[in-house]
Hints:
Blueprint: E1 7-9, H1 14-26, E2 31-34, H2 40-45, E3 53-56, E4 70-72, H3 77-82, H4 88-95, H5 100-105, H6 108-112, H7 125-130, H8 163-169, E5 173-178, E6 181-186, E7 206-211, E8 220-226, E9 237-246, E10 249-258, E11 265-266, H9 268-275, H10 280-294, H11 305-319
Helix pairs in contact: 9-10, 10-11
The protein binds flavin-adenine dinucleotide and iron/sulfur cluster.
Amino acid sequence: MKMPPFKLHSPTTVDEAIEIAQEIQSKEEDFDWISGGTDLIPNYKWHLNPKKNVISLANISQLTELTETNIGAMVRLQDLVDSEFTHPVLAKSASSIASIMIRRSGTVGGNICLDTRCYWYNQTEEWRETIDWCHKCDCGTGADCRVIPNQNTLCVATYQADLAPVLMCMKAKVHLISTSGKREMELSDFFELDGMKKNKLLPGELLTHITIPKDISDWSGDYQKLRQRESWDFPEAGVAVLWKKKNGKLEKLRIATTGLESIPGYHEDLAMELVENWDGERSVKLLSEKIRKAVKPVPNTWYTPSYRRKMVKVLTKRACKELMSE
Ligand SMILES: Cc1cc2nc3c(=O)[nH]c(=O)nc-3n(C[C@H](O)[C@H](O)[C@H](O)COP(=O)(O)OP(=O)(O)OC[C@H]3O[C@@H](n4cnc5c(N)ncnc54)[C@H](O)[C@@H]3O)c2cc1C
Ligand code: SF4
């Protein structure tokens, strides 16, 4: 597991980072951003699409701001867990990520932009050679996808990060910057249904921070996660639910999922259909069945798709426990 050679760049401001990115691109070379490196470094050691250049965000203090409504891309996951500003449901999902050591290095930006994962891909180079590679890292062989063969255009690797579903329910926005300027979009519009492209970041574009609407303290909810080992595993399925009440009556309900497809799923429409005639346990059962039907996992993580879909129903019921008696 030898680290492939790369040139490390360490800018101290966002402007400098963007300039370096532009310089590298003008030489027709490629690069990766690195924040905590807890995912990128293991991937490089396994020779999963390493680049010639790596631009570190570690020295950019501008990216570490943390308030109730603003989360810098370089905020460490454990700082998010510990902060008085963090909404309890976001803190719960952050505290379920990996282990405390990984959370002390891993960042919010790295978690949102996490590479998609697949049983046939997240393996050593030697292991992947024995199966003649796969489309996502084909080493120039034109190898096919091992999950959906005979198409060789689409990768269906799974998005397995925990923060996104909660932030989607919060209607959080991601803020991006590149040489073309700044832009922002709702997190639910950020992801792209392609396990290789993953999201809407343009070449050389950087995620700087996330903003959360001001009314977030009016919302309650829960995050529930299925994983192999409680100690540190990625979500095999994750369900976030947020609700808002008016005069004690359920007014708004949002639900999102992770670990089930190449992008996290946002299912607000399915939840809102039930809100007007909300009927406690009966409505929770209906909602959990709707979510089970909406998700389409493929066989590329540890648990089977059918088990993960069954568990999505269970996780939804658990996350809606407080709404059972409404
Ligand atoms: C054993 C183990 C268990 C784990 N368990 C979990 C888990 O349970 N849940 C979970 O969600 N994750 C898990 N992870 C994955 C990872 O640790 C976290 O997702 C972490 O938040 C990644 O953040 P990072 O800063 O280390 O990202 P990095 O590894 O530095 O980067 C990840 C990706 O994001 C890109 N990137 C980083 N920052 C930016 C930015 N600001 N703008 C644009 N692109 C950027 C990088 O180029 C790279 O492609 C686990 C990892 C390990 C090793
Ligand atoms: S989904 Fe297919 S192409 Fe993508 S990583 Fe898995 S085997 Fe490779």
